[in-house]
Amino acid sequence: MMKTNTSNAHTISPKPLTTKGRILEAARILFNQHGTDEISTRQIATELGISHGNLCYHFPRKEDIIEALYKQLAEAMNAQVLALQAVPEKEPTQKPKHSSTKKTHSSVAPENHASITLQGLLAGTMSSFEVLYQYKFLMLDFVSVMRKLPSVRAHYTDLVRLRKQQFTALREQCVREGWMKAETASQFDETLNEAMFIVGDFWMASAEILYEGEESKKIPYYAKVMEAFIVPLLTEKGLRELAALTPAEAA
Fold first, then answer.
1. The pLDDT value given to residue 168
2. Which residue ranges form the domains of the chain, and what is each CATH number?
3. Which of 28, 134, 153, 241 lies most in the core, judged by the most C-beta atoms within 10 Å?
């Protein structure tokens, strides 16, 4: 029997789970440890101590489990964006083409712009990377998952378009707060969005192959890589705030 390593399980919910929830949680852990190709629905059922038929009642195919976990991640990342926006969830200004994606999209920008600090933005980056790491199998098996599950690929494509709008709106807030340069942020808006998405969605491939540091420092290290995109955009006010947040490195 393939047993999970509970010390690295990254358990998400402390609440008692339903059978369906237990299946998703066990699958998430096994996929993270071994990859989607190496794990079958029978292995997930065995891990949980339930019959294969019971598992298939909830999820007839392994692909159904993967898609459900992808949707969990999308919802968790929506919560991260909404926390930065500090406003209630609402429909995006541009609705996605696929109606099935409606529930996992969040607003583009707040109606009443909330104050956003550099400290809050960096903390949000760290928190988002922690969420992504809980579903690292999706990032490591990204191309394979997208090829096998067209519905996930369609949802992700729409979600990226929305996220780029949201990130542009967040940068506009940062400019209004006076710690990000307006002209630089505008000049490189599209390429900056693209670069940030490449790092944000695919840093785990680098972490899996090249990272040689301590496990506990892995996420902070790659969050720092993302921070490097922000530094050239900072005003003098922003640079002072960054120095205050990292006095040892600024010295």
1. 83
2. 11-58 (1.10.10.60), 67-246 (1.10.357)
3. 28
In this predicted model, what pLDDT tens digit does every residue of 61-88 receive, in sequence order? 999 999 999 999 999 999 998 888 654 3
What radius of gyration, in Å, describes the C-alpha atoms of the chain?
A: 20
* Crossing angle for the helix pair 236-245 and 118-134, to the nearest 10 degrees: 60
Does 1 or 192 have the greater pLDDT score? 192
DSSP 3-state percent helix, strand, coil across the chain (nearest 5)? 70, 0, 25
Which DSSP helix (H) or strand (E) runs through 153? helix 150-177
Rounded Cα distance between 223 and 121, Å, is: 11
List, for residues 27-57, the tens digit of each pLDDT value: 999 999 999 999 999 999 999 999 999 999 9
Whole-angstrom Cα distance, residue 59 to residue 45?
11
Instruction: Count how many residues are written for the chain.
Output: 251
- Contact (Cβ atoms closer than 8 angstroms) between residue 65 and residue 122: no
**Does the structure show a pLDDT above 50 at 106?**
no
The token pair that represents 219 in the structure block: 């996420």
| Cβ neighbours for 74, distance < 8 A, ≥ 6 positions apart | 104, 155, 159
